[in-house]
Write a structure and sequence with these properties.
By secondary structure, the protein is an alpha/beta fold. The chain contains five helices and four strands; from the N terminus they run αβαβααβαβ. The radius of gyration is 13 Å and the shape is globular.
Length: 108
Amino acid sequence: MDKYHIPVMLKEVISYLDVRPNQWYIDCNLGGGGHTKGILDKGGKVLGIDLDSDAIREVAQKYQPFVESGKLILVQNNFSHLLHITHMTHISPVSGILFDLGVSTHQL
């Protein structure tokens, strides 16, 4: 298991998002990238947003092949700027958005 972060309710999140191959999903609280990895493993593409530069750096390293292939776009920003971020990254249409608003034990 990942030492950086263990995603909660991963199976449920992936199921409810109904992830489809080559469709875009937005992870508004990237954290350790656990939910993002679940989406990528199902063939989805992800725009991952996090204000924490450590989270962006960690996920970029961990999932570098997805970043290089364009299946994962990482943006360090606040999800409150979601509309601007989606326009800036030109992802469309979006098939699902995840807001994991729990506390990250890594940040504590």
